[in-house]
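Exercise 7. Predict the structure of D-amino peptidase from Streptomyces iranensis.
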Amino acid sequence: MRIYISVDMEGITGLVDTDDVQPGGRDYERGRQMMAEDVNAAVRGAVTAGATHITVNDAHGPMRNLLPEALHPAARLIRGKPKNMGMLDGLAADHDAVICVGYHSRAGTLGVLSHSFMGHEIEDMWLDGRPVGEIGLAQATAGALGVPVAVLTGDDRACEEMTEWDASVTTVAVKYARDRFAAELRPADEARTAIEKAVASVCAAPRVPSTASEPATLTVRWQSASVASALQGIPGVTATDFRTVQAQGALPSLYRQFGVWMRVAASMTNQPPYC
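Solution. The predicted structure, encoded as tokens:
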């Protein structure tokens, strides 16, 4: 059994503020430890379920948050950037399931550290007309590869968002949002036990492969009209208004193209991620 784990940071047990998740933040080093413990709980669950190959992709910010020496020895780590497939780099059709650890809700929701990929530089996103963030786009892209998302962990708003996209996914709420930078925290040991048990239980059961999707339309509204203007230089990208662009294509290639959009935007802006 081959398990793929994509790990973000905002939805990790105990973390609620930018200082917890940004390099240089006063609690970032502690946040890295908390991140490793949530991931290791998922890895232990996968091992219990019979996984023989576990890939962990550090999917947060600089993608160098997880310390290799802190990771469970049963897992291999994909670390650093750039990555062609970003948060899903290394995911392939021969994986049996995807586990999303530490995910957060999309921009505009009142979830802990909510945003969509680039802080407030991305104001809104839609996939085939549905509001989407990192959760929905990951689920759709994995599905296009024929790999089901099995478990997602994060705050309660992230779990609700996952259920809206795919009610068959098991979710584990490790905290409960009170506001964008505040939450009621589940005790760390309790949260990690819940993660481990959920992964062990779900991955042990046969999963129904996802069906490859038809060509999709991805639409993104940017804060900056300059970003939207520059992106129209990419073949296939069209504008719907001064700040909104869209493109059509098959996932996962459309997901990869979106990564190029973000690199263009990053080169043109210097926005703090959570203001």
